[in-house]
Amino acid sequence: MTSHDHDHHDDHHHHDNHFSDMQARVKALETVLTQKGLIDPAAIDAIVETYETKIGPRNGAVVVAKAWSEPDFADWLRRDATAAIASLGYMGRQGEHMRAVFNTPETHNLVVCTLCSCYPWAVLGLPPVWYKAPPYRSRAVIDPRGVLAEFGLTLPDGRKIRVWDSTAELRYIVIPERPVGTDGLDQGALAKLVTRDSMIGTGLAKSLAGAV
């Protein structure tokens, strides 16, 4: 694992049912700025809702479905994920430099940001809380198989797990293996089988039975 610099503050912490220190500071700042008439809370809520439900992870699912069904696009994604993803209109902050890593029967890929929370917003939306938490950021590197088991994903002993450390300069999307029995599905139906966790590597794509 190579060291790297990040352009974010290390604002991560353990989470419970109360506001974290960072959440409390953000809430206080939002209150002050709202009182001064500098921001509109409704506009902030709209931005958050867009990233959570519209931008991602639906965009990433489209990328994966296209890679599953179009070999030429999958090859482009391997060679230049940034350009391939941008061709679908998915670009912007924290998604400027992308790499796609493909799961195979021999290798399973897992993405983590060990020092911060670098994450491809343009294709996966907002990062989940656990992705930013110190236990995941440290244990994903030390004991990736154990971490996956805690997510309910038990891989065969012979399958290699490769951990990718996301940085401010380069972010990753995992292309999960295509579920069996999906040869007749179009890209829209395939996209519905793709989960956020499968594009981080903490899960697999849904099977046809699981999607029902």
Would you kindly provide a written description of the structure presented here, covering whatever features stand out?
The chain has 212 residues and is mainly alpha-helical. It is built from twelve helices and four strands. Helix 8 (134-142) crosses helix 9 (144-150). The longest helix has 15 residues, at 21-35. The N and C termini lie far apart (40 Å).
Q: What's the shape?
A: globular
Give start-end ranges of low-pLDDT stretches.
1-19
Radius of gyration: 18 Å
With strands numbered from the N-terminus, the spatial order across the biggest sheet is: 1-4
Q: Give the rounded overall mean pLDDT.
A: 84
What distance separates the N and C termini?
A: 40 Å
Query: Biggest sheet, open or closed, and with what strands and sense?
Result: 2 strands, parallel
Task: Using brief descriptors, characterize the structure shown.
212 residues, mainly alpha, two-stranded parallel sheet, 12 helices
Summarize the entry for a quick read.
With 212 residues, the chain is mainly α. The protein has helices at 21-35, 41-55, 58-69, 71-79, 81-86, 121-124, 129-132, 134-142, 144-150, 187-191, 196-200, 208-211; strands at 98-102, 107-112, 160-165, 171-175. The chain has a two-stranded parallel sheet. It has a two-stranded parallel sheet with strand order 2-3.
